[in-house]
Amino acid sequence: MSVESSEIDERDRADMQRLASGHEAALNDLMERHGPKLFNYLIRCLQNEEDAADVAQEAFVRVYQNRAKFDASQRFSTWLYAIATNLVKDRYRYRTRHPQVSLDAENESTGSDFRESLPEHGPTPSDTLAAEERAEMVRRAVAALPEELRVPLLLSEYEELSHAEIGVVLGCSPKAVETRMYRARKQLRNKLGWLLEKIE
Questions:
Q1: For residue 120, what is the enclosing H or E element?
Q2: Rounded to whole angstroms, how far apart are CA atoms 153 and 74?
Q3: CA 5, 7, 13, 19 torsion: positive or negative?
Q4: How far apart are CA 158 and CA 56, in angstroms?
Q5: How far apart are CA 95 and CA 101, in angstroms?
Q6: pLDDT (tens digit, 9 = 90+) per residue, 109-138?
Q7: Residues 40, 6, 15, 29: is their CA dihedral positive or negative?
Q8: Rounded to whole angstroms, how far apart are CA atoms 38 and 59?
Q9: What is the distance between the alpha carbons of residues 16 and 66, in angstroms, rounded to a whole number?
Q10: Could you tell me the pTM of the whole model?
């Protein structure tokens, strides 16, 4: 663990103690430190900024509600991601019961899809476009993975959590995390093998 991350852990523990003893401003410090990274993780999980913002907010509400239950021997970030990941699961269950209109769905009045009505960000060179297309293909392939494979992959690749920490977040052993990561990467290789060969 780097010096910087152990300093952050110390500040987190101190803020959680302050929060538990009634200093509500400590929650703002925790949100400033962890909010942006958590939001990015949630966007990758949920593929929707509004849902990600809602879940991020709800995760910090849960932190506040459970402030007295925080175990100072564990990392705050691991605890926060466990809370957020459970909220993501709830959101997935909600979505299966209440399907949303897809961004690819056509607008009945114009006949074009929703993405075409989004503002353009100006012309880009073909290299940038190719890189963006590759990134989009990878993003879609990751989004298409089953939840039990996608979440550990996101926590490892983007949030840089260890297998042990991911195990705590998901309530399983580090070995189970390793197996899921292997299966996730194998599925991605099967889907994106041709693309990865082109990049290498």
A1: none
A2: 21
A3: negative
A4: 16
A5: 11
A6: 444 444 444 444 444 456 667 677 777 788
A7: negative
A8: 9
A9: 10
A10: 0.68
